[in-house]
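Hi there. Long-time user, first ticket. I'm pasting a complex I've been working with (about 492 residues overall). I'd like to know whether the download I got is complete or cut off, because the file seemed smaller than I expected. Thanks.
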Amino acid sequence: MAKLTKLDDIVSLCKRRGFIYQSSEIYGGLASCYDYGPLGAELKRNVRDAWWKAVVQMRDDIVGLDCSILMHPMVWKASGHADKFADLVTVCKKCNTRTRIDHLADKSDGDAAEHTEHVNIETEAAKEHDLSNKVCPACQAVGKFGEPMAFKLMFETQMGANADDQMTLWLRPETAQGIFANFRNVLDSTRVKVPFGIAQIGKSFRNEVTTKAFIFRTREFEQAELEFFCAPGTDEDWYEHWKQQRFNWYLDLGIQKENLRFRDHDPDELAHYAKACVDVEYKFPFGSGDWQELEGVANRTDYDLRQHQRGMRTMNDWFESKGDLSKITLKEEAEDYHKGPLSFFDEQNKERFIPYVIEPSAGVDRSTLAFLVDAYDEEEVKGATRSVLRFHPHLAPIKAAIFPLVKKDGMPEIATKLYDDLKGNFACFYDQKGAVGRRYRRQDEAGTPYCLTIDGQTKEDNTVTVRERDSMEQSRINIDQIKAYLREKLDL
RNA sequence: GCGGGUGUAGCUCAGUGGUAGAGCGUCACGUUGCCAACGUGAAUGUCGUGGGUUCGAAUCUCAUCACCCGCUCCA
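Hi, the file is complete. Here it is re-exported in full:
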């Protein structure tokens, strides 16, 4: 299997073959930002399409959505991000280890730090923080901490060209809230009934304290999220359902079983709104061969919809404070909140409730990287190394390459005709330069599953050579049957 | 943000004060009739960026940017 043992090898591969480049490279690069090159753009698009097909197209109970990145600030007040999506961190002066202050344990009780949510940055920063009795988890030094530093995890931007009349907005830190904000719209316009899901793929932005490992953790990233709404009491079954569905999706697209696993979150690791959460992890070859999260499947309960009902009740305060979020607090829930504007009426049981939500949330960039790394292989062929990307046909950036065996005797004419005939149906590539063996190997490196070669025999019996990427085996197929052959083999 | 490391051709790297190099890749022409390894020729460098020292800097020095390994966090 792959001989990519270091992240550097992957970065190099990605650049050399045109999958991923550093953003703004000609200006020295921009931290944490990356661009997808010609092959990478195709690969990533295929990953998105495969997700959409599995999650939306093939299901009768899920519909799609595509929200704006900028949303009303109250969305983030209600979701909790505006107040809580920040960390207060301090550094141990002895060993330079950085720790969130809410994770520090007291010297006296010695208890391990408990998991807590992100903090409210305004109130926390204003508080006096007595760290003199706190223990550094790394070097055990007591009270050697510097001033707490605040990290805001959402990007801010301004709406309105007039400088005197601008509103501060946030770039969304997750696509999920756009789905909750449109829950009512979808209910009213599509005839869906609980249980059903709303799916969305799009960019999100988090001003991470530290980025990591190539495109694994970036400040701008793409999510594929599904919010699946179900009746309270059925949520645990749906949680299991989606756990399996999502795991199998990676396997079906060729991820090797031994590189994929679940990791359940400990109860004290769960976010305050989550009843259960499991990560789908991939064994990336970063340094020590660490397992890293590709996707999280969470039971978010009815938390988000209930929060947005509170948000809707708070709008008067928002207008009165002239949009200053720091001056308002969310209104309490109505006593009959379960009959609120974001509730669902179950015709069969004649009851109204706020649906529970199961959320599979996948990282598109992470998955793309995993598919790339997992497909990479090197093998010995006649004493030389053949490197090949064994992509699942659905993910392969190029489905078929068309070659004339040599650049004469009318072969290029037949080959270009075949190419023109196929490119409307499949992503194809035409190449007539150099030795054919070299062209085969070049396509191996791009992960192209099939090469079609026009030779002398083509003019005699109308057949072409079909060469398979994985086995390197060749067979002859009538040129008129190529389209059907590819369609069947590629399952398109 | 802190500590450690790195930055020279598209990629991998050599080059420790005196005219910028190799392998692979790329391109052209020829050859070639099914698996990168033929022949001939060619292109390609703000030596990450900006200051300083020096007669002279890829090389010494300072700053800065980016990446990698940790700390932290999460899709």
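A couple of notes from our side: The longest helix of chain A spans residues 38-57. Residues 383 and 441 of chain A are 15 Å apart (CA to CA).
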